[in-house]
Design brief:
Number of helices: 4
Number of strands: 11
Low-confidence stretches: none
Helix content: 10-25%
Strand content: 25-35%
Strand order of the largest sheet: 6-5-4-7-1-8-11-10
Structural class: alpha/beta
Length: 168
């Protein structure tokens, strides 16, 4: 099963200079809880931005056109399709971004069954990576919880879990 996970601002912004736009400890906790024990697929630049390298207790897959590149603790494939062909049916695969944010997500969205959004109630001053436009009508909200700002979180945000509506 393919899931997309992303923290997204009001204007669909997701990053600036290869960093997340917001420091939201609860979002990082949720990310860890959802992805631990599963497979994550990321673009090369995103992987290289991880301060400690490969994320522990997860199968890390990096997408890179450079066949010779080595990413410690991760497997490398040249395309999303190639990576997916090396995953099992029963694996839960989380697409966590990369390729300027947009390209991996854009390719994965039509294939995804689940969408784990963190909707941040703010528009950043600067952003250079955006989540691709998508049709929310294709998705059914299955869970939602809102968090106010507090001493650890500079703006309010909501966790929203969506499931793709079955085609009738």
């Amino acid at each position: 099963m393919i899931s997309v996970i992303v923290a997204i601002a009001r204007n669909r912004a997701i990053g600036f200079e290869n960093r997340l736009l917001y420091r939201l400890p609860d979002d990082l906790k949720r990310f860890k809880a959802l992805t631990t024990g599963h497979t994550i697929i990321i673009g090369r630049k995103t992987f290289e931005s991880f301060p400690k390298g490969a994320l522990p207790n997860r199968r890390n897959i990096v997408l890179s056109k450079n066949k010779a590149a080595v990413f410690p603790g991760a497997e490398t494939f040249s395309s999303l399709q190639e990576a997916l062909s090396h995953c099992k049916e029963e694996e839960e695969i989380f697409i966590i971004g990369g390729g300027g944010g947009e390209s991996v997500y854009k390719e994965a969205l039509p294939l995804a069954q689940k969408l784990y959004l963190t909707e941040i109630e703010d528009t950043p001053q600067q952003a250079d990576a955006f989540f691709p436009p998508f049709d929310i009508r294709l998705w059914e909200l299955i869970q939602s919880s809102r968090h106010d700002r507090d001493e650890k979180h500079q703006c309010p945000f909501s966790f929203k879990d969506y499931q793709r509506k079955s085609h009738h």
